[in-house]
Design a protein that fits this description.
By secondary structure, the protein is of the alpha+beta class. It is built from seven helices and eight strands; from the N terminus they run E-H-E-E-H-E-E-H-E-E-H-E-H-H-H. The chain folds into two domains: 165 residues, no CATH class; 55 residues. The longest helix has 21 residues. It starts with a strand and ends in a 12-residue tail after the last helix.
Length: 247
Amino acid sequence: MRELVFALEYEPGRNRVADALADHPDARIRSLSLHATDERIWRVDHATGDPAALSAVEPAFLDGDYYADCLATGDCGATQTTRVLDHTEDTLVLYSDWERTPACASVPHIARDHLGDGILFETRHEGRHYTWRIIHSGEGDAAAFFDALEAAVGDCARTEMLRTTEASAGRTTGDGRDLPPDQEAALRAAVEHGYYESPRVVDAGELAAHLDVPRSTLTYRLRRAEERLAKGYVAGDPPTDGPAAPL
């Protein structure tokens, strides 16, 4: 089995969910379940954030032009039903069922075309950064998938391949050696340029400019690196009092 991870960085005004999340940087959306056939997509999404963020996210799903991730540039005529399964002060759970038309395009359907059946999907949406993790057999054509994805996305988002590897690889031990290259590079630069000093020597915008990446991309990579390191630390043995291993 192979793992393919990529991100879409949406331009302002091109995706209402991304716009709502960009206005509320602490909010997150992750898929709890996502399934696709040739004709349909159905999924359950879990959003977290403060009440204002969830109040912005909910209508983006319910009455916006979200269409369960359709990448068509105009009205594709798809039929979508979205229902709220749970809504508390800091959590929103939504179920979406989308029936496509021949004019529709979506990440799951492009993946099915090029990577075959039996694919598993996982998504994470933070700000304008929408990350997809796909587990597939490895027998399809990943390069053709990415070319088709870029063609379907067009100028509404920037596409970025984050990694493609064996599905069992990439687990961190907590010392940073198993971080994906983009996250490790961001973390190294942050340390070297004083981002983690107190007070900070550089802010996120300055560090992003140095790395020549969007600020949202940098902050996303740092958050994911920090998350992996923290989980690895808690799951494994804490470091000794000796010298720390280099990042």
